[in-house]
Fold each of these.
Amino acid sequence: MTSLLSVSALDAFYGDFQALFGIDFELQQGEAVAVIGANGAGKSTLLKSLAGLVRNRPDAIRFAGRDIGDSPAANIVRFGLALVPEGRQLFLSLTVEENLLIGAYGGERTSPWDLQAVYRMFPVLQERRRSAVTVLSGGQQQMVAIGRGLMSNPSVLLCDEISLGLAPIVVEDIYRMLPRIRGNGTAIVVVEQDIARALRSTDRFYCLQEGRVTLAGRPADTDQDAIRAAYFGT
Amino acid sequence: MNGFDTIIEGVLLGGVYALFALGLSLIFGIMRLVNLAHGDLILLAAYLVLSVTTALGVPLVAASLLVVVVMFAAGFALQRLVLERVLGDDILPPLLVTFGLSIVIQNGLLLGYGADSRRLQAGAFESSSVTLVPGLSIGLAPLAALLTAVAAVALLQLIFYRTSLGRAFRATADSPPIAQLMGINERSVYAIAVGLSVAVSVIAAITFGIRANFDPSIGPARLLYAFEAVIIGGLGSLWGTLAGGIVLGLAQTIGARINPEWQILAGHLTFLAVLMVRPRGLFPSRRP
């Protein structure tokens, strides 16, 4: 079976600094995959490479039958890969609703996500649709960021540290929505520092350490010690 | 009625200044680009309208529409071919390039049209007026300039706050990399913005060209007024720019009424006073 998204021997660089070394990564349609690892392991770089914010060799990343390794970010979201960036990165001069609408700017993929669908998932956003995003709570801002990503109707939603800085109960609320997103056939990649949380809500995981994949597998089949060793490199 | 006269005259003059400033405000707001050639681009537009009306005998309104289209394309190309290469974290290269462009346009106009003063001919419209109350009448041309300025701001606001393109403008201004993640092509957004800015300056050129004589050397002075209007109004706010233009117009006419030599000086002093009292301008944008 060919994967929806497949990364092979990906080396990613920031100028002269090499952040990723020979990463191999696969994602099937509708799957949820966690990428775990310590700070600086290269998790965000991997997502940025997938989303086109870090440019690579064209054939290092293949998505839906296309080589996208060096495609610009603005094209990749049109192909169906959307990134919910770390730290939410909402547009501060746009209202809640405008932030959602701009997620659909590419405009070529139209179902099932639209404003109404996002509001059904996060009703509080509808109440605050005309507010500036700066007055929202952290959890609500994260909902906007996820909704904005969904508005492009991606086949893959990349979520970078969506629980960062949020209260545990809010994180719980947000993670409860992931099955609903997958229910529409969207695959999800979550990057998380909270290993337990990440493993609980995904089918498979990749553990990165210093830019390399040190372990990959299914959470249920992998014992805690192996994960700990892959995570810390001990 | 004398004081009232002055105020109306000032407000009307402010409409022209606001039109000078709108294009500048627009691209500064979106791209953080300070276009030092803005005044010269206005003059270039004025000369183009002059050529199309006199050489081809096209009526002013039709000529204006034609030049708006041409200048939009020129602005678009200017961004894609020139400015795009120098935009970045460093603000100096775009300043130098637009400064150079200003000199190129000035000398190009001098070469093509000579140093003589010119004026756009608008027929009877130039000198007709409407009587508001007995003893107080307003020239149609300046009134039309003010109304055009208001309409231009309203239209741009509509584009900014009610259309998908406007959202793309604002999102790109907030954060270019994140805007790309939304499928926004930063290069074409910037090119449209510059095109729009230059197209708006055609309107400025026409209202100005009917009102006063122009020659190739006066661009930088228009740029200065435009700058002052933008700063007085507050960076990033289009209604603020309109208000800034009117404040500047009022200051100049009131200054001139006190002593004709003080017209320009009064404008500059008001600008400095506003900067001292409200360094971010009268209506700064809400952007944090």
Amino acid sequence: MKIFWNAFNVQRRVIFALILRETRTRYGKTRIGYLWALFEPLAHILIFAAIFSFTGRASPLDESVALLVLTGLFPYNLFSNLSIQLMNAVEANKVLLSYPHVTPFDVMASRTILEIATQMVVFIFVLLILALEDLWDMQIDSLLNVLFVVLVATALGAGMGLINAVLAFKFPSYANIFGMIMRPMYFLSGIFFVVGYMSTEIQNIMYYNPVAHLIEWFRSAIYIGYNSEFLDKHYLFNFTLTVVFLGLLLLRLSRHKIRQSK
Amino acid sequence: MIEFKNVSKSYALGSGKKILLNDISFRFQQGVNIGILGVNGAGKSTALKLIAGSEAPDKGRIIRRGTFSWPLGFSAGFQGSLSGEENLRFICRIYAANIRSVIRFVADFSELGKALYEPVSTYSTGMRARLAFALSMAIEFDVYLVDEIMGVGDRLFQQKCRDAFVEKSKRSSIIMVSHNMNTIREYSDVVLVLSNGNVDIYDDIEKAIASYEK
């Protein structure tokens, strides 16, 4: 029992140290450092919200196009950033893996925690801006469901990130291939439109994209009175569990190889 | 205490496989200082990493009792983009050491001065080694694992390292890899000679050196 407690304490310390270190290194040596990490997704959301508002596009869900963009980009960014951040985690932390205490899993865990925290802060910040600008009526349908989506999006993104990390380690050109796959995903996930209101043919194609389900679920949780008919939680759960299981398995199988590569 | 139970380790090398350790078993009690000898590529550094636990054996078990340092070498695990001081903070957090007292000790011992607050990527090899050495002396371990790092810096600094090590060896022991026979003579009680996947253990250091130099 004591051994497990010790191991747990070491892991807690290592992950905490890695998170702190990451906030120092990710955005270089500038004094504001980590603020850049917050600024980037913030700008991403605000710019798109502004473009769609000014071009006079209407949201099919309520008057606020900005809220539509936010509710689409938040789950998408959480998933996509995690899958890419974890893919690059080994390379960025290679030096530190020479410490016996630091395992590839710790490196992955610390990046995951930091990414969730970053995206959550940005999301809440944008929500507050929208509330101040009267673009959000300060009501959501179900907080529980919102948290659920965050959890599933994290699991899906982290699981995908683990798979990516191992594949990128084995085949260095994989990172480029994944980037190519992700580019159309940006338009095929229903960020800027509502999949639930699309034609059946389009829905049938988009059905296989788990991120489209994530976004639909998120919007159902935020908007009062919107309940997506498209959403298939069963499919999303199965997909997510498979990805997480596969990711953890691949990491477990290759953790020694990852460590001894220099 | 360190124990190897039927440990095997090999590396994939192009087409074939290089066997570094072939079914090796030994056991040493706490307090025994161990020197490791072997030609380049015999697997000395790998053996040290196995002892530290930063690499895993292909087969067999490694049992440690007490706290072990990471392998202290020239390629010490410092992040180049961070300053020496920031690197210290990270390592202190991992090993639950008091950050302030470690930084004070390292600043004093390493004689790096202002360079301690510059990115490690700007350091010379000697400066890195001094940082690594000072840091390891600042954190208490039962066993210090040393990879070729003894004898860095000028004569004065070497003397300082020696004094620090003598002080440490009252409570801790050392496992070291070195090409320098004098260093091996000075610090080891037992010598392991690595060759072709085998390990020979010598209590008599002169005999070990003789067999290695043959």
